[in-house]
Design goal:
This protein has 147 residues and is of the alpha+beta class. The protein folds into two domains: 7-43; 45-135, GMP Synthetase, Chain A, domain 3 (2-Layer Sandwich). It has helices at 46-69, 115-125, 129-135; strands spanning 9-13, 20-24, 27-31, 73-86, 99-111.
Length: 147
């Protein structure tokens, strides 16, 4: 795998069914599946991490923007939910491919901000890098090797 000075994230699935140890630099996280799916529920599942990535990018982007504007932003909360639903123009709704991923995101802002400032923060929230990545076409180059 070519790194070209890019950050590499390592993942290892050992012998504890679905428990995955993930490392990014000096940080280590655990991912797992719930017991109902055969895991041990020792950590968030992969979709939880996807939502956490989007949510953390959103709050960081909003905080940076508000700081640059010297707006009285006291606190930011984001609550999200992921689910799959049928496309509105679904012709064959029994086909699994007819379902699309939906992320519901609620942003709660604390601070003495005007309605205009809140609307601007809403616009800015859609410009965080992870949000834009998820909405773009993504190429995933995969290789496999045996050791």
């Amino acid at each position: 795998m070519s790194t070209n000075n890019k950050k590499i994230v390592h993942l290892h699935l050992g012998n504890e069914n679905y428990k995955t140890v993930m490392t990014a630099g000096r940080h280590e996280l655990i991912s797992d599946e719930p017991k109902s799916a055969g895991g041990q529920d020792t950590g968030p599942d992969p979709y939880d991490y996807l939502l956490m990535s989007l949510g953390s990018c959103t709050v960081i982007t909003l905080k940076m923007y508000a700081d640059r504007k010297n707006w009285p932003l006291e606190d930011i909360y984001v609550e999200m939910l992921h689910h799959k639903s049928h496309a509105e123009d679904c012709k064959d709704c029994d086909d699994p491919k007819a379902k699309i991923d939906k992320i519901e995101k609620a942003i709660i802002i604390k601070g003495d901000l005007t309605e205009k400032q809140l609307q601007r923060l809403m616009e800015i929230s859609k410009k965080c890098p992870v949000h834009r990545t998820l909405l773009n076409d993504i190429d995933i180059d995969t290789e496999i090797e045996k050791r």
